Amino acid sequence: MKRIVVIGCSGSGKSTFSRKLKQVTGNPLHHLDKLYWLPDWNLRAAEEQDRIQKERIKDEKWIIDGNYQRSLPIRLERADTVFFFDYPRSLCLYRALKRIVLNRKRTRPDMGEGCPERFDWEFMKFIWNFNKNNRPGLIALLDQAPAGIEIQHFRKPREARDYLRALEEQKEEEVA
């Protein structure tokens, strides 16, 4: 597990999982939101997003956290592992709202500089409609992924926690 993609709906826990995975694997972590968003919530052009991503995937080890479905094939070209957070929209919406309240007007470490947490109806609608509008495309891209990629499909938060716990135990056994 050297080149890892973490995808799923906003609020599913991708960034939290990715940070913990970084601790276990030691792989460099890249949050696409941090790389793609410019101050005041201005998104980089698609060509610039692709260039940034192509640079990151050249490395031998990495974790890339973020959906950006349009450019997922770039990551899948080199990935050996994908973690897909496929949770109910109510859970993702609750977590996103909780995050907004807890981080109000502060910029999270996994977000672009100058992009403080805020409430945005369009973002809430995106989360609410994610499983209808975005999930089918993600599933199709994963179905077309190059052979040999390990895909971990988490449908419940407990599955992700159990996976990390098992990985941590495995690492401890290797060290002992």
Automatic annotation (TrEMBL):
SUPFAM superfamilies: P-loop containing nucleoside triphosphate hydrolases
Gene3D superfamilies: P-loop containing nucleotide triphosphate hydrolases
Alphabetical list of InterPro entries matching this protein: Cytidylate_Kinase-2 (IPR052922), P-loop_NTPase (IPR027417)
Name this protein carries in UniProt: Topology modulation protein
Organism in which the protein naturally occurs: Trichococcus flocculiformis
